[in-house]
Structure formats: C-alpha cells, structure tokens
Amino acid sequence: MVYLMSQMWIWLLIAFVIGGYIGWTSAAPEAHRVNSRDVP
Questions:
Q1: Which residue positions in the chain have pLDDT lower than 50?
Q2: What one-character DSSP code corresponds to residue 12?
Q3: Model pTM?
C-alpha cells in the first residue's frame, strides 16, 4: 500500500511539472507578442 502511494505521488509530481512546463511555454509567446506591440 505504501508503495502504491509513493508511486501515485511520483506520477502526480510528474504531471504537475509537465503541466506547468506546457502552460509556461504556451504563455511565453503571448508575452513576447505584447512586448513587440509595445515597442514601436
């Protein structure tokens, strides 16, 4: 049971890291577009 719990925490951490990475990479281009708009 403890082994299953540790496995679940590892998969939860992996999913959190992957989700955060995808969210950061998808939000970065939008920030660059805003910066390019502000600069004349």
A1: none
A2: H
A3: 0.48
